[in-house]
Amino acid sequence: MPLVLGVTGSIATGKSHLCQYIVQKYGAVHGDADKLVHRMYDPGKPGFDRIVAEFGPEVIGTDGMIDRKVIGSKVFGNAERMRALTTAIGDIGGEMHRVIDEWRATLPNDTIAILEAVNLIEAGYSAWCDATWLVGADYDVALPRLMARNNFSEPEARQRLDAARKWQDRAPASDRIFLNNGTLQDLERETDEAVTEALAQFRAGNLPPIRYAQWFEETREEREAAQRAAAAKKGAAS
Question: pLDDT below 50 — which residues of the chain?
């Protein structure tokens, strides 16, 4: 059975570099939640038809696939349309759970499997992982990274960062936090330490309880109140 790590973090924090480093150095199996979701609306799948019905045929690209840039422009900054897209795609949580179950059933002992997801904690995927690792970076560090990586202007980069959840909000549900304000070499050294410790605990059968479980209970009332408020707002709008 593998050690399943959930890795999360906002844009331009370095979470993908951390994941790829573990893949390359430790032979980890890696699942990118975004790519797994994209496969759920390939042509011929129910998600494809539902998205076209919801957003119109203009979301179909010249290659016959859903054009993610077009669909992104329709939902960015609009929570209601984002919910409509999520509903159209299908049971995303069920797909993530299926992937993790498959890893646990088929991968050999001492393998590392990584589920990388921006919304790992919020969507509840952390509950199925042996540990949640959070990669964060301070705003003033992430800003120039995002501008350079995506060729964004400063206002464009600030818009993306301002729309993203702060890493501090996810910290209470995370078992390990990597504050990636330094070099990639610094991040890799810290990753080596974390992998060595996690594998030793996993092999000895003494991984600590996941912090997500405690966070989930402590924030239950707050989350339920937010859900009721969102439902009321949706009802008023309709």
Answer: none
